[in-house]
Amino acid sequence: MSNEDVGCSSFITILILLCSISAAEAENAPIPDAPSSLLPANETLRFTTATNSYVKRPPAAAHLCVVDRQFLELSAISTAAIFADSYSTTWIGNNYRANGPGPCTVEGGEPRLYGIHPTVARSYAVGAGMSAGAIAVSYLARKHLPSRVKWMWPAALIYETGISVHGFSTNLARC
Fold it and tell me: Over the stretch 85-143, which tens digit does the pLDDT of each residue have?
């Protein structure tokens, strides 16, 4: 991953965080004055009730199932892309151990994350962590984001899918 890609992904991450924060701040805006506050000070309110009157409860908000088909499909696609990236990354380490230094033996994308000559265990551990993190962030976003920004919940899954597809295609192109 080049410095441009890191800068772009950092910018997108910061932009998403700022949008979430501004949406949360908008929910904490002061409540407007009630219509009853517009009555003159001397006027009294008169309430009448009938014997059969009752207070209706407002309808309950529709219960959103957090883990539904769409969530599971996006999670599966993201996990498959991460697995493909981890699988192709293991080729680099295996080539180094089998052939010694040469072409396709050094991790070029994320050497700090996978290591210069990645092992199979490290490649899959990093992939499992990335997948679990993206799924957890999307789950929490879908469950807790305010309704105005609820559409942003798949951002982490889509981001990880894009990064992993890029890593997989880079590994295929290089090796």
Answer: 888 888 887 777 777 777 777 777 777 787 787 888 888 999 999 999 999 999 999 88
122, two tokens: 């490290």
* Residue 121: other Cβ atoms inside 10 A: 10
**pTM score, whole prediction:** 0.59
Give the whole-angstrom CA distance, residue 101 versus residue 28: 59
- The CA dihedral of 171, 88, 108, 173, to the nearest 10 degrees, is -10
By C-alpha distance, which of 11, 154, 175, 14 is closest to 109? Answer: 175
- Looking from the CA of 98 toward its CB, the CA atoms found within 13 Å total 8
127: nearest Cα among 142, 143, 110: 110
Q: Which residues contact 127 (CB under 8 A, 6 or more apart)?
A: 82, 83, 85, 86, 164
- Measured from the Cβ of residue 34, the count of other Cβ atoms closer than 10 Å reads 8
Token pair for residue 9?
A: 């992904």
Longest dimension (CA), the chain: 94
DSSP sequence for 111-138? HHHH-SS--HHHHHHHHHHHHHHHHHHH
Check if the beta carbon of residue 57 is closer than 8 Å to that of residue 102.
Answer: no
